[in-house]
Amino acid sequence: MSTIINNFLIAIGVKRRAPARVNLPSSYIYAVMDRATVEWLPNDKLYYSAIPGFQGVYGMGDTKAAALADLESSLAEWAAVRLSRGMGIPGVEGQTNAVHA
């Protein structure tokens, strides 16, 4: 989860159970992160990163590197939630199969 969202949830008193971390194959992470886009948001003075086709997976940070690191963390949490619900995660180019719970 994005650090900004997590801090907001803590500030308003929302208690949530973190999903179990999942160890995605590094080849999958590299393939997905290779599709990432990063843009500067001048009004927010932050970098925003996202992965096309992975709805709800994004990162933000003061630098491009921080935004990408946040994105990778969001990807892992998103995958853990989907797998815990038996939804699987999509395959990407260069990967033979989607990952299932």
Short description:
The chain is of the alpha+beta class. The protein has helices at residues 3-11, 26-33, 64-84; strands at residues 37-41, 46-50, 58-61. It has a three-stranded antiparallel β-sheet.
What distinguishing features does this structure have?
101 residues; Double Stranded RNA Binding Domain
Task: Give the helices and strands, then pairings.
Elements: H1 3-11, H2 26-33, E1 37-41, E2 46-50, E3 58-61, H3 64-84
Antiparallel strand pairs: 1-2, 2-3
Describe what you observe in this structure.
It is a single chain. The protein has 101 residues and is α+β, with helices and mostly antiparallel strands. The chain has one domain: Double Stranded RNA Binding Domain. The chain is built from three helices and three strands. The protein has helices spanning 3-11, 26-33, 64-84; strands spanning 37-41, 46-50, 58-61. The protein has a three-stranded antiparallel beta sheet with strand order 1-2-3. The longest helix is centred in the C-terminal third of the chain and has 21 residues, at 64-84. The chain is globular and about 35 Å long. 18% of the residues are buried. The model has no long low-confidence stretch (mean pLDDT 80).
Record field, number of beta strands: 3
Largest sheet: 3 strands, antiparallel
Oligomer: single chain
CATH class: Alpha Beta
* Total DSSP helices: 3
Low-pLDDT regions = none
